[in-house]
């Protein structure tokens, strides 16, 4: 093509192609930005959408790159607020985490794959999907409260804590969460009678997942409720599961929904089974 030639494709289609390339091959985003000024603007709009500090599917920006861009003050305050939608945090100091969340307060999917201390900006976030150690939100030795604003819009909540003290209070607060439909708890965090009580009192729950780090699953931990699913998701698998889910792929939440739907249709045998097997096709 000569230097003065016009593009062969309409701008809308050209933009769709470049954005799709950046999403499907996030490692190519930086090179794509060098193609032209207009392509740089298109890619920059999605470059910061999904952020983590490790190589994962769908990740186009690492955490420290995001931090550097925030500190450069080259963008208006609304830039990162409006663009960062999925954030996976691990190995950050409280100060750095607070700095990032202050700029990315509209994050929709937030995983705190670490313990956190005093992070004031965390309370200003309103994620739809949230994974964290609930105990990190306790203050002065008091039990953490699910009534905090951070939980107001959460639909999918994954709690990493292994033991919940005062289960009755915990369940009572869960039942008051207005948007919660999916809950994941780790193995041994609650006993079977407490899980049964949780499902009875949280009528809006569509799925309760009991996470196991490895085999075997304990049949004795089964709960007689179609919404209960026991599932193996190791610490190594978890980040990939999250990344797949950010693009609408089949993550552990989606597999639980599919299993529950099959169970409601009577396709799971025996009907008391609460864990997924290979022949389920999920």
UniProtKB/TrEMBL annotation:
<dbReference type="InterPro" id="IPR032675">
    <property type="entry name" value="LRR_dom_sf"/>
</dbReference>
<protein>
    <submittedName>
        <fullName>Uncharacterized protein</fullName>
    </submittedName>
</protein>
């Amino acid at each position: 093509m000569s230097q003065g030639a016009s593009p062969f494709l309409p701008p809308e289609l050209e933009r769709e192609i470049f954005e799709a390339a950046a999403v499907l091959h996030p490692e190519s985003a930086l090179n794509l930005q060098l193609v032209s000024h207009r392509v740089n603007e298109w890619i920059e709009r999605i470059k910061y959408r999904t952020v983590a500090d490790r190589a994962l599917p769908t990740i186009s920006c690492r955490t420290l790159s995001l931090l550097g861009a925030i500190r450069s003050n080259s963008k208006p305050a609304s830039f990162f607020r409006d663009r960062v939608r999925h954030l996976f945090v691990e190995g950050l100091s409280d100060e750095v985490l607070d700095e990032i969340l202050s700029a990315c307060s509209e994050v929709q999917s937030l995983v705190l794959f670490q313990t956190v201390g005093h992070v004031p900006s965390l309370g200003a976030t309103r994620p739809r999907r949230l994974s964290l150690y609930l105990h990190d939100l306790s203050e002065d030795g008091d039990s953490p409260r699910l009534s905090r604003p951070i939980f107001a819009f959460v639909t999918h909540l994954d709690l990493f804590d292994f033991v919940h003290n005062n289960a009755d209070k915990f369940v009572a607060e869960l039942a008051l969460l207005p948007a919660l439909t999916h809950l994941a708890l780790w193995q041994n965090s609650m006993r079977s009678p407490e899980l049964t009580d949780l499902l009875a009192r949280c009528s809006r729950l569509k799925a309760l997942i009991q996470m196991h780090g490895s085999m075997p699953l304990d049949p004795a931990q089964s709960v007689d409720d179609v919404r209960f699913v026991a599932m193996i998701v190791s610490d190594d698998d978890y980040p990939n599961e999250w990344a797949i889910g950010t693009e609408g792929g089949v993550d552990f939440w989606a597999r639980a929904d599919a299993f529950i739907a099959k169970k409601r249709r009577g396709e799971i045998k025996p009907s008391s089974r609460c864990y997924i097997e290979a022949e389920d096709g999920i």
